[in-house]
């Protein structure tokens, strides 16, 4: 009589054997090593793959005490502590290291009935590999999430809107108020004043910030494509329609905000469709007849005078009133000249960091020129002027010579700029002329000195003094 049969009645033994052979039928084909231990730590059942893993025939294992099969088994402790050990590293007597589960199964009185064991990974390296792959997937996922936010999300917030003038602070105050509401916002202002920056910041400060921010430039999309861009289309809606159809920007922005830039350029026919979407709060893809409800806040912007367009019959009055619930005027740079210095420094920092150059200073004379200019292109123009200057300078300072002539010449020739000592004006002219000739001679100092009709030592002197190397 085998150990397991000792002390049992015949009918119990028959039932036990039936149960075990049934379990073997179930567990043998499973490609995961599984073992069942009785409450006296004897092996009741082991599947084929586990027996192979241990290196003994099944018959030699069944009925033996688990410690006789594997001296390192922790089942005796698990039965004593009555606590499962999940994903533990285990070194088998045969030298294999694996990741295992050991689970005690208790009866209603909390006493051990049997123990269930399972090898999760037969080899720790395999387990490490999976953890590594998982980590890799997690980091890839987070990269894609960031990229998606960059594509769909709003990048800028209030801190990115530089300026301390009363006018810009008033605009920021109104925009912050508008952000707290669900109303449509209309941003008005000349080109390059920062309307898009405001649209981002409004979205980011609203309770929609975790949802998409979708931008549409109404002037950049051909009239015939605008409708499908905004509202999408169904498969087969027209010849050339993509398989599977297309999701419109309104649907993409659901829950978030849609930024309709250059709204003044929206074709008249489209204006009626937009108005309907704003009123009904639902969109219908081209070729579909089942509207979809959407929850999108519109932030529109224009550098045109919409009232004038309404008067000329080019912009729908009803749409104008729908959009004009919260209108915010973004002042031009000319209206806030006191912000030029702080803006110039902030932009210099941002641009030079991006360009990998160490340019930190703007000479006082350069600042005077910047303040004296009218900036028809507003902050965008200032940004471009500084980028050019960073490219031109060889030191850490922006000098007047690094500004375009249309900014510096105006002051000197027409005498409209600040009055300054003659020495400064002569120095600036010297710098500009020397730079230009050096450029033309491709840095040849002998030729440069000859063209300028000065001695080479005098040229070297000036180059060093003005930091033109
Ligand atoms: N107050 C500001 N502080 C810092 N940067 C600004 C500010 N205003 C504008 N800019 C920068 O100037 C550039 C132009 O701004 P933006 O595109 O927002 O202007 P816009 O009014 O939307 O122009 P457009 O009407 O031509 O579309 C951007 O690079 C933006 O980052």
Search tags:
469 residues; alpha/beta; Beta-Lactamase; Rossmann fold; Helicase, Ruva Protein, domain 3; 5-stranded antiparallel β-sheet; 5-stranded parallel β-sheet; 20 helices; 16 strands; elongated; disordered N terminus; binds adenosine-5'-triphosphate
What does this entry show, briefly?
The protein has helices spanning 10-27, 48-54, 58-61, 66-69, 75-81, 124-152, 166-179, 195-205, 223-231, 249-252, 268-280, 306-311, 317-323, 340-355, 364-372, 378-392, 405-414, 422-440, 445-452, 456-466; strands at 34-38, 43-46, 85-91, 97-106, 112-121, 185-188, 213-217, 232-233, 246-247, 257-261, 282-283, 292-293, 297-302, 326-329, 361-362, 397-398. By secondary structure, the protein is α/β, with parallel strands linked by helices.
Characterise the protein shown here.
The protein has 469 residues and is α/β, with parallel strands linked by helices. It folds into three domains: 119 residues, 2-Layer Sandwich (Beta-Lactamase); 174 residues, 3-Layer(aba) Sandwich (Rossmann fold); 133 residues, Orthogonal Bundle (Helicase, Ruva Protein, domain 3), CATH 1.10.8. Helix content is 47%, strand content 15%. It has 20 helices and 16 strands. Strands 2-1-5-4-3 form a five-stranded antiparallel beta sheet. A five-stranded parallel beta sheet has the order 7-10-13-6-14. It has a two-stranded antiparallel sheet with strand order 8-9. A hairpin with a 5-residue loop joins strand 4 and strand 5. Helix 19 packs across helix 20. The radius of gyration is 39 Å and the shape is elongated. The site of adenosine-5'-triphosphate has 17 residues, from helix 8 and helix 16. Keywords: ATP-binding, DNA-binding, Nucleotide-binding, Transcription, Transcription regulation. This is PAS domain S-box-containing protein.
